[in-house]
Write a structure and sequence with these properties.
Largest sheet: 8 strands, mixed
Helix content: 25-40%
Radius of gyration: 28 Å
CATH topology of the domain at 12-246: Rossmann fold
Strand order of the largest sheet: 3-2-1-8-9-11-10-12
Strand content: 15-25%
CATH architecture of the domain at 12-246: 3-Layer(aba) Sandwich
Number of strands: 24
Shape: globular
Distance between the termini: 48 Å
Structural class: alpha/beta
Bound molecules: 2-oxoglutaric acid, fe (ii) ion
């Protein structure tokens, strides 16, 4: 075989070879998706012909594929598989592939649906394009014959997620990915995230010109067009060496977890239903936008790394919740405070952080000269964030049936103690609403929020199943934490066990600096400071308008999350999408296999845009049964009587439980609380050394 010199666009494979010290590496294995004719811009011809590597080439365009076959026969006689096809997830078997005839545009071909608009438009316009129906298969299918890949080159113009998500990481280890994507692609963030979740670190290849750019920690990606030569940035090198050697790529596979589910096989993915041992699974750290679920569907057996769509929460309901909440937030502070519920951790009615409130009151007492300068009353009141919350419909006020169930006195006995006991009453306080009599304009707030509540509540069952499966439990393992089936002689019904809350947050526009309160509490710097939500997970309906307007981390005006390496990232939002964010309690329930996500809401940029930077988010924080043990289902820890309940992880719940036991003064209980919670966390997270107990083994067979 004649050694062919590099044909890659920017010398990508050479950068990789030098970076990984592969100059002497013979007989490696490559995979190239989007192989084109196997020569033009090939990232692998050099590896094959000069270093005796073998590999798999996949190309979706029939025209390019015939050239690929010819070229493969000529330049890669042996040790190569060539496939005509694209990558997709079942049940799809074909997709519409956009092809170009012009040479320069020929590099941009792919699944039309996945292509970023920019590419579609620019290349569609500039070059002759046509479409063909191309067969597609999950990536796992193409990789059947290999168990290890050294270099995976992925250049598929928008379909990267489909490729990554359909790899069976249990069956193959992949050492280095090189992913080319354009930064404008809104999916970039998800690809990054997915690779990070798989244990890869990112290293960018920079052009000479961009060398000075700071080097991010770190998957390899290239993708800076108009570049002559690529340079690996030095700082990054260090990180990469460190991390790459440690990363074991078969660590996490959501498919593995979901298919271990007995409730239904996952015929489409073609995986055997064999769970991994937990030891090899490592820590799953799902982040945002990670689930696809449909309520009413049998537990959605979809890969977890998808956003929730077809989620069953009607857009109109969310729109109504937003509109009615807006009317509420636009009332004077005195009116809103009328619906405040005092007491800790109640999460009902109007809420504003006490330290914010103190600050506002002081500011207003000093004669804040702002009335009339801004159309948003909340902005002129100096409010940074405020919220309106409600709990499950069993908490509806006394004019409704359900509150009777909750309220009847403990001695009277007919109340379900889950709600009616003194502990129960801590977790099921009554909802508070403006009524028709009090304020005609605000009377629709209640139906609007309750409508959204109900569909979020339904969806949360499906999402909890996904998370459960992802953590290696049967998908229904946590069902009872939300609803429990109760059979009586006459009927079967589902009883609410959870205490989830729906919360609409209003972040008023940031006033121009000269009008802003001179100095606020330190938290004034952020709309919401860094925290995890104290639930199993949170579903967030965000607003593409406000949540994709400013993209700068720290000045996004919107939701930002902390990535595993400690950096912060903006989270793009789409109107039809809900974001799933694991919270603190899921850590206890999954022994740390799923981690809560730290997040914050940043202020918008200070400049002129700030005048019109209002943001409203609708979030549903899923809070499972307070009386359940804070431990994985059927585990040793769950059986240990010392293990506290989920409710005891709430400060109020802990205090109430302690005072009922009479073991401790109130003050001591508070003091002990934090330490205790920390200890439990340690104990649980360290305990995870084997697969979920024997009870589930029949499910895993
Ligand atoms: O407004 C958001 O997007 C998130 C709000 C939040 O994190 C919270 O209220 O806990
Ligand atoms: Fe939060």
């Amino acid at each position: 075989v004649v050694c062919r010199k590099s044909r890659s666009q920017f010398g990508e494979e050479k950068a990789v070879i030098s970076y990984f010290n592969w100059t002497k590496k013979q007989h490696g294995v490559y995979v190239e998706i989007g192989a084109m004719d196997g020569l033009t811009m090939s990232n692998t011809i050099l590896l094959h012909t000069c270093m005796n590597w073998s590999g798999i080439l996949v190309e979706g365009s029939p025209q390019a594929f015939s050239a690929l076959q010819r070229n493969a026969a000529r330049y890669r006689e042996r040790n190569v598989q060539v496939h005509l096809g694209a990558v997709c997830a079942p049940p799809r078997t074909h997709l519409t592939f956009s092809t170009r005839s012009s040479t320069s545009g020929a590099a941009v071909q792919g699944d039309i649906e996945q292509m970023p608009p920019m590419l579609r438009e620019t290349f569609g316009y500039l070059y002759n394009s046509s479409t063909v129906e191309t067969p597609c298969k999950p990536m796992a299918w193409y990789l059947q014959s290999v168990s290890h890949v050294d270099f995976f080159s992925l250049d598929v113009e928008g379909s990267e997620l489909e490729v990554l998500e359909t790899i069976d990481f249990r069956a193959v280890t992949i050492e280095v990915f090189m992913v080319e994507f354009l930064d404008q692609n809104p999916k970039t963030w998800k690809i990054h995230n997915l690779l990070r979740n798989l244990g890869y670190l990112e290293c960018r290849l920079f052009s000479e010109e961009k060398k000075s750019q700071s080097c991010p920690t770190c998957c390899l990606n290239t993708g800076i067009p108009q570049v002559k030569k690529l340079n690996m940035c030095e700082a990054c090198k260090k990180y990469m060496r460190l991390w790459f050697s440690g990363a074991h790529l078969s660590d996490v596979s959501c498919e593995a977890a979901t298919s271990s589910d007995a409730a239904g096989a996952n015929p489409s993915a073609g995986h055997t239903a064999k769970p991994q041992s937990i030891a090899s699974r490592g820590t799953l750290q799902p982040s945002l936008g990670l689930c696809e679920a449909a309520p009413g569907n049998a537990p959605a057996k979809r890969d977890l790394r998808k956003e929730v769509r077809n989620h069953g929460v009607p857009q109109e309901a969310i729109a109504r919740a937003r509109a009615e909440s807006t009317k509420f937030f636009d009332q004077p502070l005195e009116v809103k405070q009328h619906y405040a519920v005092h007491g800790m951790e109640r999460n009902r009615g109007y809420e504003i952080y006490p330290h914010h409130l103190r600050f506002i009151e002081k500011w207003q007492a000093a004669g804040a000269p702002l009335r009339g300068v801004h159309p948003e009353p909340s902005a002129t009141q100096g409010i940074v964030s405020e919220r309106f919350c409600c709990g499950p419909p069993v908490c509806e006020p006394s004019d409704s049936q359900s509150w009777q169930v909750v309220q009847s006195d403990a001695a009277g006995g007919h109340a379900d103690p889950h709600y009616g006991s003194s502990l129960g009453q801590v977790f099921f306080p009554q909802n508070v609403w403006p009524t028709q009599e009090e304020a005609r304009d605000l009377a629709q707030l209640r139906p609007a929020l309750l409508e959204t509540y109900r569909s979020m509540e339904q969806l949360s069952v499906a999402v909890l199943r996904l998370l459960s499966a992802a953590a290696g439990f049967p998908s229904t393992a946590f069902d009872d934490l939300l609803f429990r089936s109760e059979e009586s002689s006459s009927s079967a019904r589902k009883v609410v066990r959870h205490t989830s809350m729906l919360q609409v947050c209003n972040y008023p526009s940031l006033l121009p600096r000269r009008l802003r309160p001179p100095e606020g509490p330190a938290e004034y710097q952020l709309r919401a400071k860094a925290h995890q939500d104290f639930g199993a997970f949170t579903l967030l309906a965000r607003c593409p308008g406000s949540d994709s307007r400013y993209k700068r981390v720290g000045k996004s005006g919107a939701l930002e999350i902390e990535l595993p390496d400690g950096s912060w990232a903006c989270v793009p939002a789409r109107a039809d999408e809900l974001t799933v964010m694991p919270g603190t309690l899921i850590e206890y329930l999954t022994a740390g296999r799923i981690r809560g996500v730290m997040h914050r809401v940043a202020n918008p940029p200070s400049a002129k845009a700030a005048m019109d930077s209002r943001r409203l988010s609708v979030t549903f924080v899923v809070k499972p049964d307070y009386s359940a043990p804070a431990a994985p289902p059927r585990s040793e820890v769950a059986a240990d009587p010392e293990t506290p309940t989920l409710g005891e992880l709430w400060r109020v719940g802990w205090q109430e439980a302690q005072s009922q036991k009479g073991t401790m003064s109130h003050g001591d209980a508070v003091q002990q609380f934090r330490r205790h919670r920390q200890e439990l966390r340690q104990r649980l997270l360290l305990k995870d050394e084997g697969p979920p107990g024997g009870a589930f083994s029949e499910l895993e067979a």
